[in-house]
TrEMBL record:
<dbReference type="InterPro" id="IPR035969">
    <property type="entry name" value="Rab-GAP_TBC_sf"/>
</dbReference>
<protein>
    <submittedName>
        <fullName>Small G protein signaling modulator 2</fullName>
    </submittedName>
</protein>
Length: 159
């Protein structure tokens, strides 16, 4: 019974996702077959004869053929715009790749700082334990110093 109630709830929520502004599946042609490899290759050869709404309608009602999903999804997700040239697509890819590399450099710099501080804290605790003295004040100083990490991260990301 709980399963049936759950399905009813899911069905209700999914019905709210239906986009009623898209043309019905049988106009101007039947769309239950989805976006096929043939239609996609025709679109790529002559972008001007196909409208974005028609391609989206085919995808909406019938999905995307498995062989072309890798090519189509960047358009569906808005990474590329329909009717973009190969040159424009490669420029977008280069910009995204450069941004990704920049973010990775920033995170790796932060990771080095964090690992170094962890090593220092561990070695300080070990040294204090070995000497038999109280570690409370020293650990508190190291913990306070670690709270300044966010300032260093901001400084590094500005570089």
């Amino acid at each position: 019974l709980a399963y049936c109630r759950h399905l009813s709830t899911v069905r209700t929520h999914l019905s709210a996702l239906v986009n009623h502004s898209i043309v019905p599946p049988d106009r101007p042609c039947e769309a239950s077959g989805g976006l096929s490899k043939e239609v996609w290759s025709k679109y790529q050869k002559d972008c001007k004869n196909y409208k974005e709404l028609e391609l989206l309608r085919l995808v909406y009602y019938g999905g995307v053929q498995h062989e072309i999903r890798k090519e189509v999804w960047p358009f569906l997700l808005g990474h590329y715009k329909f009717a973009m040239s190969k040159k424009d697509m490669s420029q977008i890819d280069a910009k995204i790749n450069e941004r990704y590399q920049q973010v990775m450099r920033e995170w790796k710099a932060c990771e080095v700082i964090v690992k170094q501080r962890e090593k220092e804290m561990q070695s300080a605790i070990f040294a204090k334990l070995s000497s038999g003295s109280s570690i409370d004040s020293h650990v508190l100083r190291l913990a306070h110093r670690d709270s300044t990490l966010s300032n260093e991260v901001k400084r590094l990301s500005a570089i």
